[in-house]
Amino acid sequence: MFRTEICEILGIEYPIILGGMIWVGKSELVGAVSEAGGLGLLGAGGMSPQQIAEELENVRQQTGKPFGVNVPLMRPDSEEMIKVSIQAGASVITTSSGSPKRFTKMIQDHGCRVMHVVANVSFARKCAVAGVDVIAAEGYEAGGHNGADEITTMALIPQVVDVVDVPVVAAGGIAGGRGFVAALALGAKGVQMGTRFLATEESAAHANVKAAVVQMQDDGTCVTGRTTIGPTRAIKNRLTAKIIAAEKEGASREELFEMIGEGRSAKACVEGDCEDGSVYCGQIGGNIRTIKSAREVIEEVIAEARAVVESFPSLAQA
Ligand SMILES: Cc1cc2nc3c(=O)[nH]c(=O)nc-3n(C[C@H](O)[C@H](O)[C@H](O)COP(=O)(O)O)c2cc1C
């Protein structure tokens, strides 16, 4: 049940992907997700090529199953990051924040799969033309950097699957079996989850961040950065209040950059400062109440999805 073409393409048991998460998706989480039958992706955004190689060596100690690396293409050394990842055993490279065309052929020539993350239909079309193996379509409810067009997962997925032949994975707002089934119903062949895996035992996020996720409500996140680093969804706190106030008062780009600053997400995720750091998190955090192991998360998604699907015949008769 739930074996889709994504499982064949990526060599995994369940079509569940750990979204690449800077500071969060390190070897322990990557290995745990892959070992449990999903696809673990190293969140390499804050890592040097040397660190990537070390982390992947640790992943290989934990699992013999496939794993991948998320490489944000805005990094000037993204080509080196990709080469090191492939050398260190990654079989999937997911690229984001840049042109899907840039490295697709090079990655595939090394026998690896390419997944590119998009937030609108026109980028999905570009991915299809570029020949990527999988498209991750991410809605506006997702944690971290969002698309500028503010399209939600519910609206984005059917529009993307209708225009591309490439299998699509849905991301944004999915943390359990109900969201998983909804994504498949919309035409996706699998899901990518970030926020749910942020609040797991193996996540490298600071304990304060995990606590903030399990305590937040449905309206606990907001988006800032539209005029500077791009829309970014994070838990509301002193920092986001300060940025929103400055944005309303018409602060200049430079002033806002100064406020958002470098390393705000590390301040939260690594140092645990959930007031003056940026706590990347999706809206679905309001539905997450306990910190679990990555394996429990995956098993519960599948069990809940099965129960949902099994309830459909009775719904059809009602
Ligand atoms: C803490 C955090 C960090 C993230 N970092 C990255 C990143 O480095 N690169 C990336 O492409 N996406 C990043 N994302 C997005 C995730 O990979 C994923 O697509 C998203 O979280 C899915 O939506 P959800 O949060 O509703 O599950 C991040 C998300 C979170 C919550």
Sheet with the most strands: spatial strand order: 1-9-8-6-5-4-3-2
The biggest sheet amounts to: 8 strands, parallel
> What is the strand tally?
11
| Mean pLDDT reading | 96
Which compounds are bound in this model? flavin mononucleotide
| CATH fold call of the largest domain | TIM Barrel
- Stretches with pLDDT under 50, minimum 5 residues: none
Q: What's the SSE pattern?
A: HEHEHEHEHEHEEHEHEHHEEHHHH
Q: Sum up the overall morphology in one term.
A: globular
Architecture of the largest domain in CATH? Alpha-Beta Barrel
How many individual helices?
Answer: 14
Rg on CA atoms, Å: 18 Å
Secondary structure category = alpha/beta
Q: Roughly what percent helix?
A: 40-55%
The top level CATH class name of the largest domain: Alpha Beta
Instruction: Give the terminus-to-terminus CA distance.
Output: 25 Å
Superfamily at the CATH H level of the largest domain? Answer: Aldolase class I
- The domain tally reads 2
- Residues in β-strands, percent: 5-15%
Key attributes of the depicted protein:
about 325 residues, alpha/beta, TIM Barrel, three-stranded antiparallel beta sheet, about 15% strand
